[in-house]
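Class, carefully examine what follows:
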Amino acid sequence: MIVLALGLSAFGAGCGDGAEVRSVSDGTEPLGLGKEVTVPITAAVAAVVQPGAEPREPLRPRYSEGTVQQVTLRTDHRIAQQINDQPVRDYSTPALTIPMTARSGPDGIECTLGAVSTPDPSLNKALGTADGSRAGFDLSELGAITALRLAPNPDTANSARAALEQAFYQAIYQSVTFPDEPLGEGAVWTMRQQIAGGVNLDQVITATLAAREGDRLTIDLTVVQKPRNESWNLPNNAGALDIQDYVMHGSGTITVDLGMPLPVAGTITVGGHQTYRDPHSFSVLQQTIDTRVTWSE
């Protein structure tokens, strides 16, 4: 059995106009060759539960083209895995701190990465060549991310590429999409999204508009993920594992400025445990996972 890489990066083939377009599945191989790779993302669909207090108005990103923002993304992803009665093994990836300059453009948000850092010495050295790499997000008018674009520098090491990909995937699946209806303070809405992978997930984020000061919104979030099928298809046609138990949930608070491209503050933590059984050998694989995403200016 191999460590799971749910929702992370292995990409099927496809290309056009010099930039690759790939679909997300499971695996550990990073994006390659310094090309810009575009990964389609199933957009979250928002629905109002409570519209909130008056006054109410539709919430939309309001930044003009060319708006520039300095922001830092921090991610921490921990995985503990056990097979049968073997010792628990740690497959956690090092925490990353990614300073970036975000600029709104005609095709979405373009980000230029600064000096990415991590406590892991070897990965920190590999990340030294990633300075100046680019990332981007395509957005709907309601703020839903519909594609992730990544263009690491050509000489960026594979370990650094993979770490950056994982960080951005963790971030985009905890982003905020607004409903089409007017909202006021205290409003509650859900954001439903499918996450593609060996285990296809249904994710529901419940958002509460806790406070508003002008364009600055404080939004409380709760997250629930559930598998859409009963098995996990292993990468490289290596078979499938039956899902015996799958519990993933989380919460956090994020601050959004409608006049800025990316969140200005906040932390969201998602974690839980999963149990899989090999139907042929009856071996059992258990994982405990915890992911934290933090934004700051």
Remarks:
- The domain at 15-296 is CATH 2.30.230 (Lipovitellin-phosvitin complex; beta-sheet shell regions).
- The chain is about 5% helix and 50% strand.
- Residues 1-33 have pLDDT under 50 and may be disordered.
- The longest helix spans residues 158-172.
